[in-house]
């Protein structure tokens, strides 16, 4: 039996728009809940949210029955953690801070078994092979890995065409917040110069025949990136949605309380 096919990899190769949501809340319940919302992909953020290997595995289990495909972001693009993430069953990875073709090539190698790469062989013990019940796992796993790399520095931007040319890279994601920081505009990804760099980065990715991706919670901006041709676009985060919705609800009732207190003459 071959490993399960990867719908995100296929959709990106066919340049079909994939809408995503970022998961920063490290609970399987919220992942399961968001998994029913209708997004094409959900990003489990192991870079900035408090996840470890067991909690990422719990997110993958929670999303197993979902039509939203799980993408995992490791804190750093190193072989040891990539091996652990693949063995717990992540098929799609978004690797932060990729700045060169050499780095992209090393990441491809970390995700593939020999002779194509250097992934360690131990999936017989692991969730990825359904604990060795997927008989053809070793022969079929490589073909279903989706490797997305994140370009988020000026150095990375300068090397987009070289990174895009590495076989085994399935898409390039621009990180607006880190790019803004690298450009001297920490905390201001909306700065016109950063936006100019983001848009030109997306255009160059698309021009290099790669799928381009990005995250923004600004709906107008998200639509403009989609109109530009971005293929995988995350349009919000669970943390922001919950934080905003709870604050707005509380504020509405605080306002009502103030007006009813006034009419009750307290
Ligand atoms: O640089 C960026 O932008 C990203 O990498 C995404 C962020 O980490 C962030 O917006 C997650 O909330």
UniProtKB/TrEMBL annotation:
<dbReference type="InterPro" id="IPR015813">
    <property type="entry name" value="Pyrv/PenolPyrv_kinase-like_dom"/>
</dbReference>
<dbReference type="InterPro" id="IPR012689">
    <property type="entry name" value="HpaI"/>
</dbReference>
<dbReference type="GO" id="GO:0016829">
    <property type="term" value="F:lyase activity"/>
</dbReference>
<dbReference type="InterPro" id="IPR005000">
    <property type="entry name" value="Aldolase/citrate-lyase_domain"/>
</dbReference>
<dbReference type="InterPro" id="IPR050251">
    <property type="entry name" value="HpcH-HpaI_aldolase"/>
</dbReference>
<feature type="domain" description="HpcH/HpaI aldolase/citrate lyase">
    <location>
        <begin position="18"/>
        <end position="244"/>
    </location>
</feature>
<keyword id="KW-0479">Metal-binding</keyword>
<dbReference type="InterPro" id="IPR040442">
    <property type="entry name" value="Pyrv_kinase-like_dom_sf"/>
</dbReference>
<comment type="similarity">
    <text>Belongs to the HpcH/HpaI aldolase family.</text>
</comment>
<protein>
    <submittedName>
        <fullName>4-hydroxy-2-oxoheptanedioate aldolase</fullName>
        <ecNumber>4.1.2.52</ecNumber>
    </submittedName>
</protein>
<keyword id="KW-0456">Lyase</keyword>
<dbReference type="Pfam" id="PF03328">
    <property type="entry name" value="HpcH_HpaI"/>
</dbReference>
């Amino acid at each position: 039996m071959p490993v399960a096919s990867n719908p995100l990899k296929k959709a990106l190769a066919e340049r079909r728009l994939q809408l995503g949501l970022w998961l920063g809340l490290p609970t399987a319940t919220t992942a399961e809940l968001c998994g029913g919302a209708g997004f094409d992909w959900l990003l489990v953020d192991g870079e900035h949210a408090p996840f470890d290997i067991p909690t990422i595995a719990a997110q993958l289990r929670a999303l197993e029955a979902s039509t939203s495909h799980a993408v995992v972001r490791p804190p750093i693009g190193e072989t040891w953690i990539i091996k652990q993430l693949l063995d717990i069953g992540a098929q799609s990875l978004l690797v932060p801070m990729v700045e060169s073709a050499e780095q992209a090539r090393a990441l491809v190698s970390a995700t593939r078994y020999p002779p194509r790469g250097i992934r360690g062989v131990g999936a017989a013990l692991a969730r990825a092979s359904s604990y060795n019940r997927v008989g053809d796992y070793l022969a079929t796993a490589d073909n279903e890995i989706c490797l997305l790399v994140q370009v988020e520095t000026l150095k990375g931007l300068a090397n987009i065409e070289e990174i895009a040319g590495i076989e085994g890279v399935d898409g390039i994601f621009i990180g607006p917040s880190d790019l803004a920081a690298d450009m001297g505009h920490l905390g201001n990804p909306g700065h016109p110069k950063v936006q100019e760099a983001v848009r030109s980065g997306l255009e160059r990715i698309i021009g290099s025949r790669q799928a381009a991706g990005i995250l923004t919670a600004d709906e107008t901006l998200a639509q403009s990136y989609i109109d530009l041709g971005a293929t995988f676009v995350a349009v919000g985060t669970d943390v922001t949605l919950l934080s905003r919705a709870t604050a707005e609800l509380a504020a509405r009732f605080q306002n009502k309380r103030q007006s009813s207190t006034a009419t009750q003459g307290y």
